[in-house]
Specification:
This protein is an alpha/beta fold. The chain has 2 domains: 128 residues, 3-Layer(aba) Sandwich (Peroxisomal Thiolase, Chain A, domain 1), CATH 3.40.47.10; 216 residues, Peroxisomal Thiolase, Chain A, domain 1 (3-Layer(aba) Sandwich). 35% of the residues lie in helices and 18% in strands. The chain contains 13 helices and 11 strands. The chain has a 9-stranded mixed β-sheet, with helices on both faces. β10 and β11 form a beta hairpin. α1 packs across α3 and α4 crosses α13. The longest helix has 16 residues. The protein is globular, with a radius of gyration of 19 Å.
Amino acid sequence: MRRVAILGIGQTKVDEQWDKSLREIGGEAAFDAMQDAGMEKVDALYVGNMLSSMVSGQNQLGVFFSDWIGLWKQEAVKIEAACASGAAAFRAALLAVASSETDSALVVGVEKMSDKPGSEVTAALATAADADYEGEQGISFVGLNALVMRRYMHEFGWKHKDFAPFSINAHANAMHNPCARLHNKISAEEFEKSAMVATPINIMDSSPVGDGAAAVIIVPAEKVMRQPKILVSASAAATDTIAVHSRKDPLFLQAAYLSSRRAYEMAGVTPEDIDVFELHDAFSIMAALSLEASGFAERGRGVRLGLDNEISPQGRVPVCTRGGLKARGHPVGATGIYQIVEVVQQLRGECGKTQVDGAKIGMAQNIGGSGATILTHILQND
């Protein structure tokens, strides 16, 4: 297998983009990545998306975007893995380039979620749960996460206020990210007083959805002359049961554990070597569970990292350095590519006031469903 590097990146601001269509949003990110890479053509296009058929009424996103951006005759496909669609598309492109099947690939993660009422979008998102045993009972993803969070608090003795640092850190970092949706700092008091969504999860525990797209171009590493060269040193995917109640331990992200361990082994690193971790903080409970499953904290102690200020850009385990899902926003099928772009920005030294000093190795972890599909990628500054 060939070594693969990321040559170009692009992204749009996450927002309610009423004045732009799905094709315009995805095309903007794609063109930005191609300009950054100095390329006009690529050999293949992979699109990560979850909701286009249900919200925008559009399938065939591979050819939909290849037609729009002028990549006629090239291979072009859409890949869906719920909220992990972006990372799944990236992994498919990576395998194609690494295996010499293709010499360059453009990966676009895109989602337009403002074209339908919130209730319809919520119902569409719920299709990533078990339709027979979760969806049929009317439970939403925030409801599932609320049940997990309540049990976590019971088992390990944490209070709701102890999760506040995850959201406070995300909002503080998003202040310096022009592509983030939320540009407002929050306090612990504001976290506690925000409106309840599904007890114990409130608004400040939850990531906002939105419209957005991010894109990357990958090529064989030997073809990259620019410095620093950003290598993809590991890619790993794992799954768990689709229904939370079917898991042996619903408080442990088994797929995160497996994919991160495989990624560490592939890259020849340990959790202690990771300089920045873009985790999937769709809800604050998921931040804690991801840190634990990925080896940064002991079981039931992920919350402690936030309380000890170890998750800031100056901390031991910097997370969500560009705002994370919580404040950058969560256009679901695009999130995994936003995470990759943000790690690349860190390894290039482009993050300004949220730059992690000396960042050489970064990790991105994208979660589909309530932990059913999890992909972990490790990038390295060569």
